[in-house]
Amino acid sequence: MLSRLTRPRALAVCAVPVVALIATAAFAPLPFTLAQPGSTANVLGENKGTPVITVAGAPVRRTGGQLRMVTIVATGPDARISLGDVIGNWFRTDRAVMPRDAVYPSGDTVKEIEQHNQAQMQQSQDAATQAALKYLHLSADKVKVRLKLADVGGPSAGLLFTLGIIDKLDGDGNGGDLTGGRTIAGTGTIDASGKVGAVGGVALKTQAARRDGATVFLVPKAECADAEAELPKGLRLVPVTTLKSAVDSLVALEKHKDSVPSC
Questions:
Q1: Where are the domains of the chain?
Q2: What is the pTM of this model?
Q3: How is 23-39 classified by DSSP, letter by letter?
Q4: For residues 88 and 91, what is the distance between their CA atoms, to the nearest angstrom?
């Protein structure tokens, strides 16, 4: 047992490695990535001076309203994230602390990640074109669609690309805009059959959408809870599972029906 005289000194000596450990942890890099709301782009319009959707082989409508795809921005795979960064951003509603491996495949270089994201974007665009033409009963041999969105990678714009193609070619099917003149935003992958898939980061994406004027946000149904967690005021969530459910919901909104699903 330590005497009353020696205990303070002993405690002081033992405290040195503890303080050093805390200091090291505070500045040591951790396997996390910090994310925040990113840019949005109207797929019915232009991005950096180039039309996002170009169609040949079929008449194209003049559209109203907007269909905005949304992004998140994350720190790079080689960024040094400290304990202080994690603590400082953990409770912010406009930031998210995510495991690095959930955003960037472990072991990939920055160049490999960029190539992977671009490949996913191309696959997403191909699937969006197939799903849209199939929905409209149009032949890919006759109708050619070109999609171009600079500086964006990944598959999460698939649903909005598909809706954009449909709005350009057919609108709501009765001569009106699929948007009903609104600014609609959303996220979700899509496959050639029209199935909508989850993407992640929806709580940040809803903030980007509302910031850029959206009043309706199409969200994969499986991610409703995440989207509701930090939902900005004035933004209505509409859950979707398929391309048809997304189109039906937009048409119902246009006609002011009360049957539109909600999270």
A1: 36-78+108-254
A2: 0.83
A3: HHHHHS-BSEEEEEEEE
A4: 7
The 8-class DSSP code of residue 232 comes to: P
Structure tokens at 39: 């840019």
Amino acid letter for position 235? L
The two three-digit tokens of residue 234, written as one number: 């004035």
CB contact at 8 A, 93 and 127: no
SS3 46: strand
**Best CA proximity match to 191, nearest among 167, 163, 217, 158:** 158
The CA-CA-CA angle for residues 72, 75, 80, to 5°, reads 160
Signed CA dihedral, 227, 36, 246, 156: sign only = negative
Q: How far apart are CA 202 and CA 185, in angstroms?
A: 11
Q: Does residue 57 come out as left (phi exceeding 0), alpha (psi in the -120 to 50 range) or beta?
A: left
C-alpha to C-alpha distance for 262 and 40, rounded to whole angstroms:
23
The rounded distance, in Å, linking the Cα atoms of 153 and 110 is 13
Q: What is the pLDDT of residues 81-124, one digit of tens each?
A: 888 888 877 888 888 887 877 777 655 677 887 888 888 889 99
Quickly name the fold that domain 36-78+108-254 has: Ribosomal Protein S5; domain 2 (3.30.230)
d(CA 239, CA 249): 9
| C-alpha 182: how far from chain center | 20
Q: Which helix (H) or strand (E) holds 146?
A: strand 144-147
